[in-house]
Amino acid sequence: MFTFGGEAPFLTVVVPCYNEEKVIHETTRRLAGVLDRLVQEQLIAPESKVLYVDDGSKDETWTLIDELSRTHPFVRGLKLARNVGHQNALLAGLTAAGACSDCVISIDADLQDDVTAIRSFLYKFHEGFDVVYGVRESRSTDSFFKRNTALGFYRMMKLLGVNIMYNHADYRLLSHRALSALLEYKEVNLFLRGIVPLVGYRSAVVRYDRHERYAGESKYNLRKMLSFAFQGITSFSITPIRMVTAGGFIIFVLSFLAALYSLFVHLRGQTTSGWTSLILSIWFIGGVQLMSLGLLGEYIGKIYMEVKGRPLYNIEINQLLEERKADADR
Ligand code: UDP
Ligand code: MG
């Protein structure tokens, strides 16, 4: 199925979906438009596919995907046994697609990312880039709150020495070899945005405008967003632990000075009532200790999850694989 070099490359567009019944049809229509043109321009092979990954949706998403796979030759579905979250669903799709694609593009189902940018991705791929990052030109459709928390997150990651692309979500193209390299990173605490730059290879950036969600609701509420950011930070940097150690050291030095001072005061016979300072320091040290313990616990928890090495997802139906088997039988 691979075309490598010679003919037009086999592209698979991987689309994770969780309760997206309202958008699937429109997404398919628009992706079809883009893919048709790309095939005409011979930028991609005519057999190229869109792979919808149903992440354990509770609505009619899978039924729709299944129907579309019968009526649209380029649509295929991958059904996960239960909801495992965006990052894991994406990984499931990339892994399934990786076996038969010269390049893959990951995109959200909700049409927030401009599908017409796919063409520019392909141009970059043909120029020889292995990784193409879609970077949001404007975030005007995001709320003030989301824009600023996102900005804070990118700044923090940079400060901690983690290399991630500014304003890039999971809209990107990966060549076959970049994807294979990516799949070698066997982390349970998955943060794809952080891992892709580690893979290396030549990368390019394509800028696009981010739109409103076409229909339905965002699945990332404040709690999920914060947990995603925290996950990103603690999976990629041990600087927070070092900061705790440094903080502890500074407090230790300060308390030593304070001890010297109180001894000095005591020897001069000036008894201080001391209650205020005592209470303050107990609370302060107590707070610092609890916070440090919590942070250490977070990393230990991560180690625990990694050590268990549980599978990140279970596949119920893989239409790509079924098709390949059927082809082989023929
Ligand atoms: N998604 C998923 N599993 C989940 C949550 C979300 O596969 O548990 C998908 C969702 O269907 C969408 C993409 O991940 O295609 C991004 O989610 P969403 O648009 O809700 O996030 P936002 O754009 O608001 O950050
Ligand atoms: Mg969205």
What layout of secondary structure does this protein have?
Layout: E1 11-17, H1 24-40, E2 49-54, H2 61-71, E3 75-80, H3 86-98, E4 103-106, H4 117-126, E5 131-136, H5 144-159, E6 168-175, H6 176-183, H7 192-199, E7 203-208, H8 222-236, H9 239-267, H10 275-308, E8 315-318, H11 319-329
Parallel strand pairs: 1-2, 1-4, 2-3, 5-7
Antiparallel strand pairs: 3-8, 4-6, 5-6
Helix pairs in contact: 3-6, 9-10
The structure holds uridine-5'-diphosphate and magnesium ion (MG).
Structure description:
This protein has helices at 24-40, 61-71, 86-98, 117-126, 144-159, 176-183, 192-199, 222-236, 239-267, 275-308, 319-329, and strands at residues 11-17, 49-54, 75-80, 103-106, 131-136, 168-175, 203-208, 315-318. It is of the alpha/beta class. Strands 7-5-6-4-1-2-3-8 form an 8-stranded mixed sheet, sandwiched between helices. Helix 1 (24-40) links the parallel strand 1 (11-17) and strand 2. The longest helix is centred in the C-terminal third of the chain and has 34 residues, at 275-308. The radius of gyration is 25 Å and the shape is elongated. The model has no long low-confidence stretch (mean pLDDT 85). The protein binds uridine-5'-diphosphate and magnesium ion. Magnesium ion binds next to loops.
State the main characteristics.
binds uridine-5'-diphosphate; 11 helices; binds magnesium ion; 8-stranded mixed β-sheet; 330 residues
Briefly summarize what is shown.
It is found in: Membrane. By secondary structure, the protein is an alpha/beta fold.
